[in-house]
Amino acid sequence: LNNISYLNLAENKLVSRIPENIGYLPNLRWLDLSDNKLTGNIPYSLTIATQIKKLRLMNNSLSGKVPDTQTMRLFAMTAFFPGNDGLCGSVLGKECS
């Protein structure tokens, strides 16, 4: 798995949380988990994964505060979070209750 650089699991009806370990894959540059049924928070490993250049998480059921890290600010600016109404935080300009 350490050699994976491109992982596209979009539109696979995946149900569960995003595994914490996924952001620690050393060569992962492109991750597409959009259009599934993923739940829970965005794993911390993805919020600091500077090696990932493209992250697509659209149209899942993710929730919780998106940490205000440089990585997440870059992804938020390019709209990789739509369709996850439970996400909030300053990165998205949406207050958490």
Give your account of this protein's structure:
This protein has 97 residues and is an alpha/beta fold. It has a single domain, classed as Alpha-Beta Horseshoe (Leucine-rich repeat, LRR (right-handed beta-alpha superhelix)), CATH 3.80.10. Helix content is 12%, strand content 25%. It has helices at 44-47, 70-77, and strands at residues 6-8, 15-17, 30-32, 37-40, 54-56, 61-65, 86-88. It has a 4-stranded parallel sheet with strand order 2-4-6-7, with no helix packed on it. It has a 3-stranded parallel sheet with strand order 1-3-5, with no helix packed on it. It starts with 5 loop residues before the first strand and ends in a 9-residue tail after the last strand. The model has no long low-confidence stretch (mean pLDDT 92).
Strand share of the residues?
15-25%
Q: Strand arrangement, largest sheet?
A: 2-4-6-7
What is the number of helices? 2
- CATH architecture classification name: Alpha-Beta Horseshoe
Largest sheet: 4 strands, parallel
Order of helices and strands: EEEEHEEHE
- CATH fold naming: Leucine-rich repeat, LRR (right-handed beta-alpha superhelix)
Helical amount: 10-25%
How many angstroms separate the termini?
Answer: 38 Å
In the CATH scheme, the class would be Alpha Beta
Q: Tell me, what's the shape?
A: globular
User: How would you state the average pLDDT, rounded?
Assistant: 92
Name the CATH homologous superfamily.
Ribonuclease Inhibitor
Assembly classification:
single chain
Subcellular location: Cell membrane; Endomembrane system; Membrane
Protein name: Leucine-rich repeat-containing N-terminal plant-type domain-containing protein
Keywords: Cell membrane, Glycoprotein, Leucine-rich repeat, Membrane, Phosphoprotein, Receptor, Repeat, Signal, Transmembrane, Transmembrane helix
Membrane topology: Single-pass membrane protein; Single-pass type I membrane protein
